[in-house]
Structure formats: structure tokens, C-alpha cells
Amino acid sequence: MAFSRMTVHALTRAQQRCIDIEAIRLLLDYGLAEPAGAGFEKYYLPSRTLAEIKNDLQLPASRIDRFKNLYAVVSADGSVVTVGRLH
User: Fold this and answer.
1) Count: domains in the chain
2) Least CB-packed of 11, 17, 30, 42 within 10 Å?
3) Does 20 score more than 80 pLDDT?
């Protein structure tokens, strides 16, 4: 899924949590979506998907580690409303 924009809140949270745009793009392109209520979806990357990203993009494991436990909440219009890390 390509995101159309990021809200100010999402940009602030990404900066605070050291999550870059590349990571958000990969999260939305490869991640699984689940309903998050009120028309929102939460995207996350399961372990098997991290292996797929590593193989597809030929990235070293050290680069893949920064994608672990990421999530993004996306509104119905495709806007990323917040990002974070699952605990």
C-alpha cells in the first residue's frame, strides 16, 4: 500500500521514535494489515515477512533489525496517522 501522506502527528512520532520514511514505506508495502477500529488499519511486519524483505532487497540482517516490531496506523484515505514499535 502506498501512503498518500503522513499527518503532523505521525511525522512527530516517527522523528521521536527514530523511524525513517524508508521503514514506513517497507512496512506499508510488505506488512500485514489488521483492523484497528473506526475505519483505521494497523500494519505490522511478522518475522516471515522480514525474511522476505531481506531476500527481495538483498539487505544485511543488521539493516533488517530496524524494521522489527514496527507498526503504522493508516486511515481510510491512506494517511499514516501514527507510527511506533510494538512491545
Assistant:
1) 1
2) 17
3) yes
